[in-house]
Every structure is written in C-alpha cells, then in structure tokens.
Design goal:
It is built from 6 helices and 4 strands, in the order ααβαβαβαβα. By secondary structure, the chain is of the alpha/beta class. A 4-stranded parallel sheet has the order 2-1-3-4. Strand 3, helix 5 and strand 4 form a beta-alpha-beta unit. The chain is globular and about 45 Å long.
Amino acid sequence: MSAPAERPVGARTVDELLAEARSRLRRVEPEEAAARAQAGAVLVDTRPASQRDRDGAIPGALVIERNHLEWRFDPASDARVPEATGYDVEVVVFCDEGYSSSLAADSLRALGLHRATDVVGGFQAWKAAGLPVLDPG
C-alpha cells in the first residue's frame, strides 16, 4: 500500500468524522434501545441484506439500508416511510457494530430529527446482550 496523499485543507479522517458525530449523540446501550422501542421509538436496521441473512434480524425493526436512510426519514421527503411522522420521532439506528450507525444517526439529526441516536456496539451488542433476534434466513 502506498503512502496516503497529502490531506487537503479542511479534510478530516473518518475517525474524526465519527468522533464529531458521536459528540452530538447520546448513544444508548442495547437494553435501553429495547426499552425505548417498547415506549414507541422506531428501531432502524441499516445493515445490508448479507449481514441480516448471516446473523439474523431484530424483531420489529424497520429495515432501511444505509444508502436510503435520509430519504426515508426526512419528513419533507416524498420517499419517506410512514414511521417518519415528523421531526420529533425517536429513531434508534443499528448497524453491525455501531460505527456507521453513529454517522447515520448524526445525519438524521442534521435533517432535524433531534431524537435520533444509535446503539453502542450495534446489532452484535444487541445479540450478545441476549435480546430477541430472528433467525437468519
């Protein structure tokens, strides 16, 4: 692998972007995500089909792969899902291990969904906590 090119002025690393995103979130542990879902929060699984097929899924979670998330949750979008009822909807985002979900939740917050957050450790932490998982397949 060759040495990285000189970084342009203002460019940030992905680790810096992740830290900035997380500084704006109050991330939750899997058990708190489950409790929030019981209280009406929308759980959103952004993992690709291959990961859901391999590891299973969270019962009741809305599946919206990452590349569609903003369009599906922007209350002003014609492509929004019925669950995108407004800017006050509570959205808890999952990815596989809790990295891209932080960036996704921060993006939803930038759209005005001020209650968006993600799960520390993602789906893998949910599963390790013994919370319900639908069998793969």
